[in-house]
Inverse folding.
């Protein structure tokens, strides 16, 4: 069934749903795990501080609840990393870039080349250790319009960045 | 500073701190004077050059072709002295690229003509026709209706939270009084509570009415070849030029009260302005629905939607909203409230009911027409809102599905533009995909500029 009121046959347009996405590098999962460990440690320390300083919580069974809640949060965080990692993927088409992420809520963000303002590469300390990098694509949109692709190999990210930058310049020349 | 001056003359003693304060005052005045003296601007070689700064000299160069619009603003002091504040917007930037804080009114208008006229090498008759015809004005009666029907609810809740913050403070100060009150039956607490709420309600209505009144006082829209010139304000008069190129999408809405009055509020969503920057919003009160096509047609033809296919929100949206936003938080908050007071807990049961009603109205009203060049959306809860968006103005687009949506073949689409986001919830997956594919096609193939 067609939902578009246009003489253009929507069925012959390129389908975003048919694109085969490239998953990010598996080493990125290790980085996510390390971040999880750090977060868990911090949360446990905070929980510990709360239990130590508040005698109210210590006397009743409050300390068990606090620990349980912290444990639950960390567990959920871990599960979400495991479940959502397979869906981290991206694709570069002729005229745009696509990025997918998320497990519970799966998102696919698409940005046309002729709307990209700028493209930069970022590498945190963890990422550098594993030879990975993130690519950030800036658009002129308001909050949330930018695309951030994490988990790319450095060489891959660099190649992609050059490709996108060259695409921006050619599109700018063609545009009005 | 002034108080210290008086204090000093009374006592006759000269305090060390007062000398410091006086010194600071003098220094500030001298600084202001120097800043005034060291400000120069001129036009040379199709460029606006501004030189300013006393200790730190700065030169700003703005090519005239980059200037999108020149806005003029007058605070109450400016109005008294017949001077204006000029600000220059360039392509794509959010705030003013350059500001000239005080100019004589006639000089400012001449400058503005010069700055904009140079953009297109147009002839002089364009400058002559600049004193263009006002196409839309707001009569005092309509202004009053507009102010009364403003969104008091928002101000009300802000005010309420402020007042109850104060109440909590008072409670701590004198516990004895309040502990007695808590022994009373609930009835004795409700009356002062009710009285306070009504008083707050009245005050907020007065405040937000006044705010809207001052903002849209003598509202007028002039039409010129560049775009629309919008002038309004009482204490703060703002004059802005809106070039049609900068408009990303247009929306017009009317709350249920405003619908009764026949008033609509049209908003041009321009590049750089989103929900957070209220100052950059361009809002036009419209007193007759017939004016709307007039204000829209320079952006895009007013949509013809009879006999066109449209997309609707799936009914399961209502249940999901009720569950996730209504009942789930209630599940956590209700036991807490029950422990505090049974009465409060009962009141809170209203919350999921409200969520349900809002979701129901939202689902029933929503329509999306995917037209050839633009997207036309009809939505609203108790009032009505329309959005008109040209496909090629999109910056990026996102399609998302929750687990539930995946099972039911539904999806949500977020269209990101330079003027804000447009969200479409819970539509059939096939429709969402077609919209996304079509929107991308229009953006990528047409190669039309979005600014």
């Amino acid at each position: 069934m067609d939902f578009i009121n246009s003489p253009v046959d929507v069925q012959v347009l390129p389908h975003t749903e048919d694109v085969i996405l490239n998953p990010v590098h598996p080493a990125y999962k290790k980085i996510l795990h390390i971040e999880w460990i750090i977060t868990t440690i911090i949360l446990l320390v905070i929980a510990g501080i709360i239990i130590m300083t508040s005698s109210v919580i210590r006397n009743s069974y409050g300390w068990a609840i606090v620990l349980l809640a912290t444990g639950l949060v960390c567990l959920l965080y871990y599960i979400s990393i495991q479940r959502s990692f397979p869906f981290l993927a991206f694709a570069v088409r002729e005229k745009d870039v696509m990025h997918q992420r998320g497990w519970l809520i799966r998102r696919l963000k698409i940005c046309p080349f002729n709307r990209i303002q700028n493209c930069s590469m970022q590498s945190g300390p963890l990422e550098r250790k594993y030879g990975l990098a993130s690519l950030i694509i800036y658009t002129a949109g308001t909050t949330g319009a930018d695309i951030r692709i994490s988990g790319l190999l450095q060489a891959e990210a660099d190649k992609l960045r050059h490709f996108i930058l060259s695409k921006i310049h050619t599109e700018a020349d063609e545009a009005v | 500073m002034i108080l210290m001056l008086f204090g000093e003359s009374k006592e006759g003693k000269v305090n060390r701190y007062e000398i410091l304060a006086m010194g600071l005052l003098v220094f500030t005045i001298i600084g202001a004077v120097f800043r005034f003296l060291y400000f120069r601007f001129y036009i040379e070689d199709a460029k606006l050059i501004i030189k300013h700064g006393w200790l730190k000299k700065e030169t700003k160069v703005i090519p005239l072709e980059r200037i999108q619009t020149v806005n003029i603003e007058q605070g109450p002091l400016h109005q008294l002295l017949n001077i204006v504040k000029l600000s220059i917007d360039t392509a794509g930037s959010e705030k003013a690229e350059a500001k000239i804080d005080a100019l004589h009114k006639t000089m400012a208008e001449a400058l503005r003509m010069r700055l904009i006229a140079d953009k297109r090498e147009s002839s002089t008759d364009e400058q002559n026709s600049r004193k263009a015809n006002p196409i839309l004005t707001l009569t005092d009666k309509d202004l009053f209706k507009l102010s009364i029907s403003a969104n008091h609810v928002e101000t009300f809740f802000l005010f309420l939270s402020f007042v109850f913050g104060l109440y909590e403070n008072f409670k701590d100060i004198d516990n004895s009084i309040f502990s007695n009150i808590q022994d009373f039956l609930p009835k004795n607490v409700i009356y002062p509570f009710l009285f306070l709420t009504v008083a707050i309600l009245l005050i907020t209505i007065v405040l937000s009415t006044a705010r809207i009144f001052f903002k849209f006082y003598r509202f007028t829209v002039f039409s010129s070849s560049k775009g629309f010139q919008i002038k309004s304000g009482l204490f703060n008069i703002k004059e802005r030029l809106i070039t049609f190129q900068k408009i990303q999408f247009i929306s017009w809405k009317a709350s249920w009260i405003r619908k009764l009055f026949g008033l609509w509020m049209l908003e041009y969503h321009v590049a750089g302005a989103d929900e957070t920057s209220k100052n950059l919003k361009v809002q036009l009160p419209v007193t007759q629905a017939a004016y709307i096509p007039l204000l829209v047609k320079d952006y895009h033809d007013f949509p013809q939607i009879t006999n066109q296919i449209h997309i609707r929100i799936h009914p399961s949206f209502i249940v999901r909203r009720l569950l996730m936003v209504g009942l789930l938080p209630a599940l956590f908050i209700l036991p807490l409230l029950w422990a505090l007071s049974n009465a409060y807990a009962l009141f809170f049961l209203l919350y999921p009911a409200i969520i349900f009603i809002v979701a129901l109205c939202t689902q029933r009203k929503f329509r999306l027409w995917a037209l050839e060049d633009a997207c036309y959306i009809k939505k609203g809860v108790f009032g009505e809102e329309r959005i008109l968006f040209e496909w090629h103005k999109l910056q990026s687009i996102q399609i998302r599905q929750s687990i539930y949506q995946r099972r039911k073949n539904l999806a949500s689409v977020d269209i990101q533009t330079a003027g804000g986001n447009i969200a479409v919830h819970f539509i059939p997956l096939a429709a969402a995909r077609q919209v996304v594919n079509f929107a991308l096609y229009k953006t990528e193939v047409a190669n039309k500029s979005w600014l």
